[in-house]
Amino acid sequence: MKLYYSPGACSMAPHIVAREAGYQLDLEKVDIPSKKTAGGEDFWQINPKGYVPALTLDNGQVLTEVGVIIQYLADQKPESGLAPKAGTMERYHLMEAVNFAATEIHKQIGALFNPKMTPEMKEVQLGVIERRFNALEKALEGKQYVMGEKFSVADAYLFTVLNWTGMHKIDLGKWPNIKGFMARVAARPKVQETLKAEGLIK
Ligand SMILES: N[C@@H](CCC(=O)N[C@@H](CS)C(=O)NCC(=O)O)C(=O)O
Question: Measured from the CA of 67, which atom of ligand 1 is nearest?
């Protein structure tokens, strides 16, 4: 299997999950602006949507969308305990957290990367983000991770996209549960390995 990624982008979520689950993944870096891979491939041919992540399977199929790839990786290695069994109520709660990460955190913080965003729009966007963070702060109350005591694929996704707050000077000090969550996830050995492999830390 090969994961097409860009350092620190949302593709870091499947990268973390792969390491946590014990996969030996091939990694291929993508230059997002030029849509060229480090190996010289045209990334449009891999993922016609033009964005990372993309996972190529050993049978040649390509899987895209962070929320789907992370659940696929967990389901192929159920012993990793990174996602509850499909069909259980717990699994629906995991999917709820993954969907929240995708649409309410990933895409809301992601919008701030748009260089054409005006200061007025940025203010509106920061207001939306603040409301989503308030909700997440409550959801994390008294918990180690979003599903409770156990680390799951949803935590890998949330950690990855919340990690962008630093770049946008959003101070997490206002949300102590989120800040504590970030420190806990960052301290996990496989997360440290991932951050190093992507060149984000030494
Ligand atoms: N819906 C997609 C969004 C992926 C996405 O936003 N990827 C960003 C990096 S975090 C990207 O590659 N953007 C480049 C582009 O859209 O051209 C998913 O969940 O995988």
Answer: 19
Which residue has the CA at smallest separation from atom 2 of ligand 1? 65
98 lines ligand 1 (CB under 6 A): no
C-alpha separations of 117 from 32, 97, 114, 120, 161 in Å:
19, 28, 6, 8, 19
Query: 138-168 pLDDT, tens per residue?
Result: 999 999 999 999 999 999 999 999 999 999 9
Q: What is the pLDDT of residue 16?
A: 98
Q: Determine the topology of domain 89-189 in CATH.
A: Glutathione S-transferase Yfyf (Class Pi); Chain A, domain 2 (1.20.1050)
Give the three-class secondary structure for 76: helix
Out of 1.10.3720.10, 3.40.30.10, 3.40.1440.10, 3.30.420.40, which CATH number does the structure's domain 2-80 have?
A: 3.40.30.10
CA triple 52-104-83, angle to 5 deg: 70
Dump pLDDT digits (tens) for 101-152.
999 999 999 999 999 999 999 999 999 999 999 999 999 999 999 999 999 9
